[in-house]
Amino acid sequence: MFFCFWELMAHPSDHRLNPGVLRSVLVLVGLFLVAYIVGRPILRENSYAQASCSTCDCDCDSDNFSIPLDCGKNDPDMNEEMEKDTITSLSEELSLQKNVTDDNLERTEALITSTKRASSHYQKEAEKCNAGMETCEEARQKAEAALIDERKLSALWENRAREHGWMDQRRLYS
Fold first, then answer.
1. Based on the structure, what is the number of domains in the chain?
2. Per-residue pLDDT for 56 more than 80?
3. 75 pLDDT band (50/70/90 cuts)?
4. Is residue 5 assigned to a domain?
5. Which region holds residue 85: left if phi is over 0, alpha if psi is between -120 and 50, else beta?
6. Integer CA distances (angstroms), 120 to 110, 112, 113, 115, 165, in order
7. Burial 53-64 (b: 16+ CB within 10 A, else e)
8. DSSP code, position 91
9. I need a surface site. Which of 48, 104, 166, 173 has the fewest CB within 10 A?
10. Lowest mean pLDDT among 5-9, 37-41, 133-137
11. pLDDT in the model for residue 15
12. What is the phi/psi pair of residue 164, to 5°?
């Protein structure tokens, strides 16, 4: 007897699963997935460690592996390096450190110059902005004064018109 999930959802029937059984199955599937995800890397490490290097059963004397005393005696690079004394090595290291320090100083000075240039540019832009704000503020004050003068003049003309019999139509309707 085969039940399709969609048929179960579309036509509810009496053949439903017990919620406890469903929960148990889901818990088992979850545990299986966790064991699979966690267990695989552990097993892989163990199998890799076992397969990578087998034990070596050799019975070798340590004398066979000793390095001869004259090793590198005929190598010109090795001879040149060994002939250098401590003072020469230290002076070379100091000169290398000086070169690194000079390079760092040069980069730092270039960054400082760039920063000063950018700072100067932004300072000029801020001064322009401040000048524009002052101009706008002066224009706003002039416009406000002109509006006050215009209102005074309008009030004067309105009073004169009322003296000559004019009535404000707007006030009658409100």
1. 1
2. no
3. confident
4. yes
5. beta
6. 15, 12, 11, 9, 67
7. eeeeeeeeeeee
8. H
9. 173
10. 5-9
11. 63
12. -95, 15
Q: What span, in angstroms and rounded, lies between the C-alpha atoms of 130 and 138?
A: 12
Residue 2 lies in a domain: yes
Domain encompassing residue 6: 1-48
Residues 105/111, Cβ–Cβ less than 8 Å: no
Q: Are 72 and 78 in contact (CB under 8 A)?
A: yes
How many residues make up the chain in this entry?
174
Contacts of 72 (CB under 8 A, 6+ apart): 78, 79
Alpha carbon separation from 125 to 26, 118, 132 (Å, rounded): 67, 11, 11
Give the HSE-up count for residue 164: Cα atoms under 13 Å, Cβ half-sphere: 5
Q: Is 29 contained in some domain?
A: yes
Q: How far is CA 88 from CA 84, 92, 98, 99, in A?
A: 6, 6, 15, 16
Structural domain includes residue 128: no
The closest alpha carbon to 147, from 155, 159, 135, 136, belongs to 155
> Does residue 6 carry a pLDDT above 50?
no
